[in-house]
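Hey everyone, long-time lurker, first post.

I ran two proteins through the pipeline my lab uses and got sequence/structure pairs for each. Pasting them in order. The first:
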Amino acid sequence: MARQLPLIPTVLVLVAVAVMVRLGFWQIDRMHQKDAQIASYTAASRETAAIDSPAFTGLDEGLLYRRVSFSCPKVAGWRTTAGRSADNRDGIIQVARCEWSDGSAARPHAVEVEAGWSNNPAAPTWAGGPVSGTYVPGGLLGYKVVADPPLGGLAANARPDPNDLPNNHWSYAVQWFLFALTALVIYGLALRKRTRDSA
């Protein structure tokens, strides 16, 4: 029976199946890495001491989910995004873009601050000042600070939770394994039909 197998199609199918199985195990590895990352972020979120005046020149992995404090000397603009309040109400998050220059960079330093929650889309009158909150990924710059306490008379934002980060790698792994199994089943049925037709 083995001699009757078409060589090139069989090799191609087995290579494809091996690749899909390998991708499945790679997704499992990614799942464990993501679990460890979330655990690290959770530990960081429990730190009570705030990091003072970070540079805000790009996404800083070491700051993620840590408390930070700094001064916003100028609000360059406002935007809104959908979000939830600390008491779990849907509404509008008011986001301020803070900018300043210290003369050491061609561009001004910038950070987006989720100032607080509201059901009013109008921008608050807050024009800058002291900020403390949690440094998280996201926003237009790839990082942002969720203010705590809120600013400009707004209500408190929902507190960032690392456990809200998606970890879908297990489902992706299962999909790759199912793709591999499906390919084997389809090829097996094709071989059986070929054998019957040639009998």
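...and the second, right after it:
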Amino acid sequence: MKHQYFGDVNDYRKYGLLRKLQLHPGLRPGVCWMLTADDGRNDGNFTSYLAQPDKWRPHDPELFDHLVTAISNGRHLDRVREHNLLPGATFVDPLVPDGRRERHAFAAAALNRLADADLIFFDPDNGLEISSCAIGRKGSSKYLMWSEVADAYTKGKSILIYQHFRREERGAFISQIANELRAITACHSVLCFRTAHVAFFLVIQPQHSAL
């Protein structure tokens, strides 16, 4: 996640999904932004939906109205707290480092910060780790490491993951990622919420499956 992405259509989707999940009592949310430095690129400029309230607002009117106001005050994750977009959530804000040792320290601190959360949302720039950008490599901060997913699940957390689609057939890609998540967590319940450009994978703890 980058500050420059705040308020784009994928934000509307991710916050909307989290707000729906938050409706369940006993499912305290935690958000690990996986924050990386702004780079001045045009990624995240998908804000035209805000000019189409008839189409987009009905999904979550309160969220939509807050985003219209918030984005006019500058694109920054501080707006999430200022406008209480995710009530009751605990946040992990530091930038994600590339270095291996620093990354391990970041991950440990994030889990400690989110110790009371039942559901952790990981919001990496790109999604789950790929073989060409393993931990410690330049640019690895844009990915959530498989080991970090396993550690969070071992701590008893259900997990929601932001994932960009890759240049491959999407149905097969979803099945592949879901199978890998099942393999590393031994979780039988992995759901995918699919949108036009990104997917959200939900890895469910057995104690949360009824929710």
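Reply from user beta_strand_b:
Welcome! Quick read of the second one: Residues 72 and 138 are 33 Å apart (CA to CA). The radius of gyration is 16 Å.
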